[in-house]
Amino acid sequence: MTKSFGVKPYLFPMPAYMIGTYNEDDTVDVMMMAWGGICAEDMVALNLEENHKTVANLRARKAFTLAVPGTDTLRESDFLGIASSNKMADKFQRTGLHASKSQRVDAPVITEYPLTLECEVVEMQSQPYGLRVLGKIVNVLADQSVLDEEGKIDAGKLSTFVFDQMRHGYYAIGENVGQAWHSGADLMKK
To answer: Which of 29, 64, 79, 185 is most buried, most CB within 10 Å of its CB?
Structure first.
């Protein structure tokens, strides 16, 4: 038996990504977002509300970073999703996190986040259902701590978390339970 919930954004998992931009006075702005992700080989799509300070920054700077937070920064990352830079000028400073300027785009790289995509704004599409920001990935930065012995990014070492839209929780991820394009390959032989 199933239960109907009507129209809800109930898909799991939802990513927990951190968008980094600069404000007009060059201070750092970071916001947590869950509605977006990879949309092409070298592109990301962010679905945002027009009233975010981050949107004004994206329009002005045409650049952003998109980072994967670890569970060790869950408290700070959640705060960056709760607080609005439109109302709290020292939002980023309150977290105690650190930032450096990206060498490729006009946006900050948050030191404590283990994986960061440096992106250029390609297009901002105002739609009846919200604003979609398309960004071109120009580089990926990964902390040494999340690399394997061959120098590749090890998702298990990211110690990241995902968002649960149904109950508003966060869930840690990291255990490898299969191999893409291999775990179901035996079904191809039937």
So the answer is: 64
